[in-house]
Predict the 3D structure of the following.
Amino acid sequence: MTHNSSVIILDYGSQYTQLIARRVREAGVYSEIHPCTISATELKAFSPSALILSGGPASVSAADAPGLAPEILTWGVPVLGICYGMQLMASTEGGQVVPAQDREYGRAELFISQDCALWNGISRTDGLKVWMSHGDKVIATPPGFAVLARTSRVAVAAMADVERKLYALQFHPEVVHTEDGDVILRNFLFRIAGLKPTWNMAAFLEENVTALSRKLGKQDQVICALSGGVDSTVVALMLHKAIGGRLHCVLVDTGLLRLNEGEEIVAYLRQHFELNLNYVQAQDLFLSRLRGVVDPEQKRKIIGHTFIEVFEQEARKIPGIKYLAQGTLYPDVIESVSFKGPSAVIKSHHNVGGLPEKMNLELIEPLRELFKDEVRKVALELGLPDFIVWRHPFPGPALAIRVLGEVTRERLDILRQADKIVHNELMASGWYAKVWQGFAVLLPLKTVGVMGDERTYEHVIALRIVDSVDAMTADWSRVPSEILAKMSNRIINEVRGVNRVVLDISSKPPSTIEWE
């Protein structure tokens, strides 16, 4: 961490830990997440300006409960404990924490009992709506701590040792369900910790382009797998600004892209940014290897292995390649160092991971500090158009996992046409920017229909339109029925081979966003 104003969040396993980091960054302060198992020595070496202890599922009284080195609270660094973080602070400092008789989950009313800097700008006297999620509670504050707020079930819902700048909240200020939660966090950052809002994407871009120029020698060549999505495009443009023509971008058309997608991306980037871009036509190779394959995981493996094969062939044509540029984002980094450990199952299409090992190239990841929303802000700083910046997320295996069953040219063509109609209607209605993702899925079955005076037996298209923040959870979007009706009518009338359209109204969990 090299940022002047910086916050370290110790992760105790909360589902909201990433959300804390995002809220801090939205306030203009750089934040990083580190596992709670980090040693005090390692933590102090970062010279943090403030610390936040996250929530977590454990009980502080459990034998294997994650702890906190007591000396951390003596450094004079402002600390905010949230949920488990509050209970841990209380227990570490000599307070009393017990299992709650009535556990609090969901909304609660918070009543402020003592003024302090945390509540600055909050004038509610009738109770503040907050979000609770805890099984333990503090029943006695540590020496030097004052009770700042309560709820009907918890006598100590917020506490502080103001002189030592130690603050703690039983509720979650980072979630949208907590009224004025952003105000409370900003009060901690600016009024208590005295930080300055210096973290912004214009400064990030300038600083990192300069750093890339210094890192890469005058002869070093870099290769970048360009997908057309915002992440890889931003990586490419940052490197282009840093080293110019020594960046070699490769966009592999697998035959699984959306309608005219490859051509549109290549034409735009070549015209407006003069990228050194190789557009590789590999549709026949990918489709031949997918012939007869219906298992989703087998599809992913075939696509991944074939992509690596094609990419390696192109890389060998460029002399002096030393680096591979990749659009790794901060959530990917967090996943590998989280207190909870890396995910048990990593999707095989998640990234082009494996390329560095196979190709013996040094990895460059200019976006590894950023969340998705921050990448989009960098894209705007670079002058990228909305159709790239706000493009909905697209899976690594592309349309292969939206064509359920065997992937053929005919079935891909049907899906592309239907998907384009979904896209166009979302754009025309203004709903494209309101939803996280909206697309069509071709189902592996046919149904009976009537068109004109004839019976038909044709394909079924499913519409999948969801709301989400980070794709970890999602709910189906309540798009107005007249827009859905127009999509259905156009697909059935304009896409030959389709006679039925259905709507997917399942949430994640238990369903996933993609069908395969």
